[in-house]
Amino acid sequence: MTGAPERIELSVAVMYHPSRVANLPRLVESCAPAVPQLVADPDPAGPPSPLRTAKAAWAAVPDTATHHLVLQDDVLLAEGFTAHLERAVRARPQDGIALYVNRNSPQNSYLVRRAAAAGSPWAPLSPHEYTPTLGLVLPAADARALAQYLRTHPDDLRDDDELVTGFCRDRGITVLATVPHLVEHANQPSIAGNAEHGIRCGVAFAGGGADPSPEQWAVPLPKDLLRRAAAGWDREFAVEFYDSRCLLRFVRAGRGEPVESSFGWEWTDWSAAVGVPPDAVLAALAEELSAPGSAARTAALSAVPARTAADLWAAAYLLGADAATVEGPPEARLPRADRDRLVRRAVESWIACGLNAEDAAAADERARRALTELALAAVARGAALGGRGPGPDDEGEAQDA
Questions:
Q1: Res 60: pLDDT
Q2: Same domain, 342 and 380
Q3: Are residues 14 and 126 in the same domain?
């Protein structure tokens, strides 16, 4: 953990479009006792461009601030938002802190789920995938430098999130997501041209049983989570549950491969490459479904195809096995009850975004509960595998930096 600074003075800017001015009173109230600056789109009649407003929002850093937060105008904030945010910043004062990660982003959503399953309140994010900017904190000097950097790009690039990724990577800024998230997407109609993205929600928003404790932000960060995010090994991977299928993505930094393509590798063909034989995954599923007392759950699962349930099982099993490789002392993990609540939230969001349209329509509340319990059992069984192999040499101890 980084040394705690003597003084934290956090400034907040809300970037907004005039068509969403009705959102501002609620958002300002949720920031209390912080008083956010309201930064309007300088050309609201122009073509949609979050970048245009982000330039002004990142420049709105008071001279006295040590850190700067930029919020977008269509977010919901967790209960006790400012107190949690200040504790998080005090724990990681040199890092960028993302307060939200989209539940179906190709790499970052998995990095958050892996951190949750490993019991970490911190998920280092990819230096190649877009950086979620619904709520992002940077040290004040970096925020000012980001504003200057963004000004060198034309507004018609539209999206600020990919530019933020390149800026942070080139400047050597580690970006960590809070687990759980302190920001959620309000899911209003997009005014930035993102309507085709569908419902946008986070992996694990705080609240509803997943509230963070005041002490959790001081939990140290295991080095293995940093290594995975950096993708320094050619067999680093992410697991997706997408279109009711379990897919593996092998993250090969510097190879010129598209980060956000919809292509992935069938888990049955490739899980052995990450040390998890597919036969072991399917055998564990058969045991789970035939266990005493499982009849009611199995009946509920009949609402969706058997392959859908099997692929969800595989995704969650691989997650559990992967998270079991994250080493570190006990103080680098959240208490078991907190970890379990976060994993449940992360699994629920995986199911919500991962079912195809037909399965989503067929899965009633009973079926979704059964799918959630099946996935949680898979995470536990995967973790009991004892960690996958092979992998690069890595001591994996908690970072003390």
A1: 98
A2: yes
A3: yes
pTM above the 0.85 mark?
yes
Nearest Cα to Cα of residue 228 among 113, 101, 124: 124
One domain, residues 243 and 220:
no
What amino acid occupies position 253?
A: A
Q: Using CA atoms, how far apart are residues 109 and 167, in angstroms rounded to an integer?
A: 21
Q: What confidence tens digit (pLDDT) does each residue in 35-52 have?
A: 999 999 999 999 989 999
What is the dihedral angle through the alpha carbons of 201, 205, 208, 212, rounded to the nearest 10 degrees? 180
Percent share of the chain, pLDDT over 90: 78
Q: What region, left, alpha or beta, does residue 310 occupy, with left being phi > 0 and alpha being psi -120 to 50 degrees? A: alpha
CA–CA distances in Å: residue 90 to residues 17, 148, 369: 31, 25, 38
Same domain, 78 and 32: yes
**CA-to-CA distance for 74 and 194, rounded, in angstroms?**
13
Instruction: Compute the distance between CA of residue 246 and CA of residue 374 in angstroms, rounded to an integer.
Output: 15
To the nearest whole number, what is the mean pLDDT of the chain?
Answer: 90
Please choose, from the candidates 49, 54, 181, the residue with its C-alpha nearest in 3D space to the C-alpha of residue 108.
Answer: 181
Q: Select from 120, 129, 143 the least CA-distant residue to 39.
A: 143
179/295 same-domain check = no
At 401 the pLDDT is: 41
Give the burial class of 178: count Cβ atoms within 10 A of its Cβ; 0-12 exposed, 13-18 middle, 19 or more buried.
Answer: buried
Q: Which domain holds residue 103?
A: 10-225
Query: Could you give the number of structural domains in the chain?
Result: 2
**How many residues are given for the chain?**
401
CATH of the domain at 122: 3.90.550
- 397 domain residue, yes or no: no
Q: Across the beta sheet with 135-139, what order do the strands follow?
A: 37-40, 10-16, 67-72, 135-139, 96-98, 175-178, 122-124
Q: Which tens digits make up the pLDDT trace of 308-352?
A: 999 999 999 999 999 999 988 888 899 999 999 999 999 999 999
100 near 81, Cβ under 8 Å? Answer: no
Question: Looking at 225, 252, 271, which one is the last position of a domain?
Answer: 225
Q: Do 123 and 93 have their domain in common?
A: yes
Backbone angles phi, psi at 298, to 5 degrees: -60, -40
Residue-level pLDDT at 282 = 98
Same domain, 351 and 318: yes
Q: Please, where are the H alpha helices in 139-245? A: 140-151, 161-171, 223-230
Q: Residue 400 and residue 308: Cα distance in Å, rounded?
A: 42
Last residue of a domain, one of 181, 207, 225: 225
Please give the backbone phi and psi of residue 297, each rounded to the nearest 5 degrees, phi first.
-65, -45
